[in-house]
Amino acid sequence: MRKSRKKRTGVDRSLYRLRNLVERCFNKLKNARRVATRYDKTAESFLGFIDITSIRPWIRHLST
User: Fold this and answer.
1) In the chain, is it the N or the C terminus that has fewer CB atoms within a 10 Å radius of its CB?
2) What is the biggest distance separating any 2 CA atoms in the chain, rounded to whole angstroms?
3) In whole angstroms, what is the distance from residue 26 CA to residue 3 CA?
4) Model-level pTM?
């Protein structure tokens, strides 16, 4: 919420936390240059590379 807003609305904090988690996940996927620029020609190879790049942080998380 902004201070200058005339009508105040509540924020669902649990929903905001989940949204933040998803946004951070997408940012980590975009760090892989191939995903950000989409070099792959077919949808299957693009989705396969997204699978591979999403597995890497998951394995790192499990190892800590």
Assistant:
1) C
2) 49
3) 29
4) 0.51
